[in-house]
Amino acid sequence: MSAVSQILTVERVSELRAALDVARRDGGSVGLVPTMGYLHEGHQSLVARSAAENDLTAVSIFVNPLQFAEGEDYGTYPRDMERDREMCAAAGAGLIFAPPVEEVYPQTPVTAVSVKGLNAVLEGQFRPTHFDGVTTVVAKLFAMLGPGRAYFGEKDYQQLAIIHRMAADLSLPVEVVGCPTFREPDGLAMSSRNVYLTAEERPAATVLWRSLQAGRDAVVDGSRDPGEVEAVMDAVLAAEPKVSPDYAAVVDAATLERPDVLVGELRLLIAARLGRARLIDNIGVDCDRL
Ligand code: AMP
Fold first, then answer.
1. Which are the contacts of 204, defined by CB distance < 8 A and separation ≥ 6?
2. DSSP character for 75?
3. Does the beta carbon of 141 sit less than 6 angstroms from any atom of ligand 1?
4. Most buried by CB count within 10 Å: which residue of 65, 67, 125, 173?
5. Tens digits of per-residue pLDDT, 73-91?
6. Which residues sit opposite 282 in a β-bridge?
7. Given ligand 1 and candidates 46, 66, 280, which is best to mutate, with the most ligand atoms within 8 Å of its CB?
8. Atom of ligand 1 nearest to the CA of 191
9. 155 lines ligand 1 (CB under 6 A)
10. Which of ligand 1's atoms lies nearest the C-alpha of 38?
11. What's this model's pTM, rounded to 2 decimal places?
12. CA of 46 relative to ligand 1 center, distance in Å
C-alpha cells in the first residue's frame, strides 16, 4: 500500500477524537501542524519535524473564514486536496483533519480569543481582524485535537509570537514549536500565495529577502538606530517599482515593540504588495551574539 492510501483523512471532530484516542491509548504523543492547505515544502518541513518528535502527526487543512476580511482572498484561496494528501504522507503525517466550515463553526461564534497589543501592530495595522480569527481557530484546533506539541512556521513570525503568548496566557497544555522559514533557491519564502505571482512579477518578489538581508547587515555592521535600519530596508524595496511596501520594521523579537535603541534579540519584518499577491517575510538578528 502506498503511503498516501494509508493516511487517514477525517472531516468530523467525532472521527478525529476517536482516531486520536486510539493513538494516545498506549501513551503515544500527538503533534499538530495547522495549515490552510495548498501545501509546499515549507509545510512539509513542519510535518517532518513533528513526525520526528511525535508518535502521530496530524495535519489540519482548513481555510478559516474567520481570519479573512471582506475583500481578501477567502473565495479564491488555492486548494488541491489530492496533492496535499500526497505531500502529507511523503513528509510522515499519519492523519489529516480536513473539516467543512460548518464542522468548525456549527453556529456563528460569539466567543473569540484575542491576544491584545500583539494583534494590533505590524500586520494588525493592515488586517485588524486577522489575528483574532487565527487565535480563535487555533484555540479550537487545540481543543479538538489536544496535541502535546503544535508546529508553526517563523514565516508568519507575528502569528507565531501571538500563539506562543496565547498558549502561555491560557495555560494551554501544548508546546508551541517554531520552525525556520523554508525558501526558494533565490530566497523567496515559500507561500501558498506565491501562486498569485505572474512570471513577470516573480523575479521582483526576491526584493523582500534582499531588503531583510540588507537590514540585518546594517545591524551586524553596528547600526543601533531602528530608523536607520528601516531606511536601509526601504531603499532596497524602493528600487523595485513593481512592489508596494506596507511596512518594513525592526522590532523586539518577543514584544514586537519598536525600541528606541536596538538591543538584544530583534526581528526585521516586511509586508508588501506585488500584483495580486501580498507577501510577508522576516529575519532574526541577535545583537548580543554579534
Ligand atoms: P498556512 O497554510 O499558510 O496557514 O501555513 C501553515 C503553517 O505553515 C504556518 O505555521 C506557517 O507559518 C507555516 N509556513 C508557511 N510557509 C512556510 C515556509 N516557507 N517555511 C516554514 N513554514 C511555513
1. 240, 242, 243, 274
2. T
3. no
4. 67
5. 999 999 999 999 999 999 9
6. 269
7. 46
8. 16
9. yes
10. 2
11. 0.98
12. 8
User: Can you tell me the distance from the alpha carbon of 132 to that of 128, in angstroms, rounded to the nearest whole number?
Assistant: 9
- Bridge partners for 175 per DSSP: 149
Cell (9 digits) for 95: 492523519
Ligand 1 center from residue 224 Cα (angstroms): 30
Please give the grid coordinates belonging to residue 185. 533557491
Residue 134 CA to residue 127 CA, distance in Å, equals 12
Q: How many CB atoms lie within 10 A of CB 15?
A: 15
Q: Whose CA is nearest to atom 10 of ligand 1?
A: 152
For 9-43, what is each residue's pLDDT tens digit? 999 999 999 999 999 998 999 999 999 999 999 99
- Cα–Cα distance between 197 and 185 in angstroms, integer? 17
| Geometric angle at alpha carbon 79, from 73 and 85, rounded to 5° | 150
